[in-house]
From TrEMBL:
Entry annotated with the keyword Hydrolase: yes
InterPro entries for the chain: Endonuclease-I (IPR007346), His-Me_finger_sf (IPR044925), YhcR_N (IPR045939)
Species this chain originates from: Halobacillus litoralis
Superkingdom, taxonomy of origin: Bacteria
UniProt keywords, alphabetically: Hydrolase, Nuclease, Signal
Protein name: Ribonuclease
Any one GO molecular function term: nuclease activity
Annotated Endonuclease YhcR N-terminal domain residues: 25-129
Signal sequence bounds: 1-21
RNA-binding in keyword set: no
Length: 369
């Protein structure tokens, strides 16, 4: 009987020998695998390979292949692996049709073989989107290495206070540092030399910034007169609500609250305004709402700071900004997208060290307000 037990233990040991983890190989590790090996790897989409020595990183013309790297900002082709996309993967993953996929993390199952005579993967059998520690397309299930663990199961004022405690302590930029930060956070995914302007959606050179007509400047989405915080460190330089906008569009918005309706504003198609409110284009309504909600949670009046609050009406004054019901509707109708998630990651990793909880967990809006 003892001999039979030994044999059974030996068998169990053999069949449970560890295999490649579900999270996959890094791009660098996959590149070192021999040709003909079946691999599972994870990498960031950084471009479209069109030759052994050329990868398009903007103005994409093909859905037939992807370049993956371990770094979202990788530009060195030697540090990329080329993935050939068969027809069933092109509509969802190809960059010509989906330029916002650039910077997203994917997992690929396939065979390690050269593509364009470069380290590559062919015969792809599976591709899936991966969570890189930010959010998962706004489904509310993502977290960042336990970042939100303390908020589990909370709601109302208790949730708001807990989120405030999570995002309260962070690096504060100077107002001049904001210029360079916005060049990175709001980079045009299709043209790395440009930034996307919030209200107009136009793509403009990163260095056409200043105070002249047709340049871009630093828009305070939570208007700085709503709390009179100016451009001082703290709310005045918090890049979670600072965005590039056309100078004249910025001036027209001024310190208006956010609400639906009004007359069209010609310099920003899809934008409307009246005497007390501003309605941005549909593609960024949710972005605006989530920035406003962030500010109302980040600045709660402790440590001598302002207490910013979202009001349930337009035409506010003091440290208030409206209109709550409209902002909640915008948040619901314009879900979190890849641009917002990437922006949140850059701010967290490279600048402030804190996150916008409403990008990572959209459900928090209804749980608080």
């Amino acid at each position: 009987m003892k001999k039979m037990i030994v044999l059974m233990v030996s068998f169990i040991f053999i069949v449970t020998i560890p295999v490649q983890g579900a999270t996959g190989l890094s791009v660098q590790d996959a590149m070192n695998e021999p040709n003909g090996t079946d691999v599972t790897l994870e990498g960031y989409i950084v471009g479209v390979p069109t030759a052994v020595d050329h990868v398009q990183q903007s103005d994409f013309t093909s859905n037939y292949a992807l370049a993956l790297a371990d770094d979202q900002e990788e530009t060195q082709i030697d540090d990329m692996i080329f993935v050939k996309l068969d027809s069933e993967y092109r509509s969802e993953y190809g960059l010509a049709d989906n330029p916002d996929n650039k910077g997203e993390l994917v997992q690929v199952d396939g065979t390690r073989n050269p593509y364009f005579s470069h380290e590559g993967v062919e015969n792809v059998s599976s591709m899936t989107w991966e969570d890189d520690g930010a959010s998962d397309c706004g489904d509310g299930d993502a977290s960042t290495d336990g970042y939100y663990d303390s908020a589990d199961g909370l709601s109302g004022g208790e949730l708001k206070q807990t989120l405030h405690n999570l995002i309260d302590d962070h690096t504060e930029l100077s107002y001049s540092q904001v210029w360079d930060a916005l060049r990175n956070t709001d980079e045009d995914p299709g043209n790395s030399n440009n930034v996307i302007l919030l209200y107009s959606g136009n793509s403009l050179s990163k260095y056409e910034n200043g105070g002249y007509v047709d340049e871009w400047n630093r828009e305070h989405v939570w208007a700085k007169s709503h709390g009179d915080f100016g451009t001082s460190r703290g709310p005045g330089t918090d890049i979670h609500h600072l965005r590039p906008t056309d100078v004249s569009v910025n001036s027209a918005r001024g310190n208006l609250d956010f609400d639906d309706g009004g007359a069209p504003f010609s310099e920003a198609p899809g934008t409307y305004y009246d005497s007390d409110s501003w309605e941005p284009r549909d593609d960024v309504k949710g972005d605006v709402a989530r920035m406003v909600f962030y500010m109302a949670v980040r600045y709660e009046g402790d440590s001598g700071e302002l207490d910013l609050e979202v009001a349930d009406y337009a035409g506010t004054n003091g440290p208030n900004l409206g209109k709550l019901d409209t902002l909640k509707e915008w948040h619901e109708n314009d879900p979190v997208d890849a641009f917002e998630r990437n922006r949140n990651d850059i701010i967290f990793n490279d600048y402030q060290g804190n996150r916008n909880p409403f990008i990572d967990h959209p459900e928090y809006v209804e749980q608080i307000w």
